[in-house]
Amino acid sequence: MSIALKNVSYSYQGKYQTVRAVDNVTFEFESGKLYAIIGKSGSGKTTLLSLMAGLDLPTEGEILVNGKSTKEWNRNQMRRDAVSVIYQNYNLFPLLTVQENIQYPLSLKRMPPKDSAGLAKETRERVGLPEHYDKRLPSHLSGGEQQRVAIARALAQGCKIILADEPTGNLDTTNTRNIVEILYALAHEDNCTVIIVTHDTAVADQADVVLQMKDGCWA
Question: Is the Cβ–Cβ distance between 26 and 10 less than 8 Å?
């Protein structure tokens, strides 16, 4: 499974001028590697990740997810079946338990509840959360625990492309190390393509490939 950028640009209309947030970016991400995209705020890295997630379309060029352009994908389906996104703020449903949060994307795939419950258990264990967490609400979890649930949810989807937007931005050093270890294992043991946008040099140091953005393009 792969994701390829071909002369990708993205522009939007600012208050006073047209802003070219991503400028003619080309790269092919491979399976089995952990990538870090770094750069100052406003460099275009989060916009690029959003385009790879299919949250918007490039204004020029194209992004190929498993050989198919995001312009051709049903992008909701793409995020269910091909690409999982992990956010800095976890994006858990506050009124759903840990187990229900992990099972939620499986219900969208119409997986039988018994099967989705079993898969939710497997992925919860994979990220190091014990069984008694199943019935807890996100408000009863630490930031590191919430991020583990978010990763478990992404794992349960079965997608081989994982995009993470500042996944350790709200975490302390110990939790940052634990989350990076999980993402590293997804790349190297599960043969996923894992792409992290980060400001954290400790995260970038663990990546197989570090890409730096400046003014919308590779530095």
Answer: no
Residues 6+ apart with CB under 8 A from 148: 127, 128, 129, 178, 179, 182
Instruction: Tell me how far apart the alpha carbons of residues 9 and 26 are, in angstroms, rounded to a whole number.
Output: 9
User: What is residue 1's predicted lDDT score, i.e. its pLDDT?
Assistant: 63
Interval 120-130 mean pLDDT: 93
- What lies within 8 Å, CB to CB, of 128 at 6+ separation is 148, 178, 182
Q: Check: CB of residue 86 under 8 Å from CB of residue 162.
A: yes
Q: What is the pLDDT of residues 46-66, one digit of tens each?
A: 999 999 999 999 999 999 999
CA dist., res. 108 & res. 157, Å (int): 10
| Cα–Cα distance measured from residue 61 to residue 73, given in angstroms and rounded to the nearest whole number | 15
Q: How far apart are CA 197 and CA 53, in angstroms?
A: 12
- List pLDDT tens digits, range 129-139: 999 999 999 99
C-alpha separations of 166 from 5, 58, 89, 162, 217 in Å: 21, 22, 9, 13, 19
| pTM of the model as a whole | 0.93
Q: Which of 2, 18, 8 is nearest to 48 (CA)?
A: 8
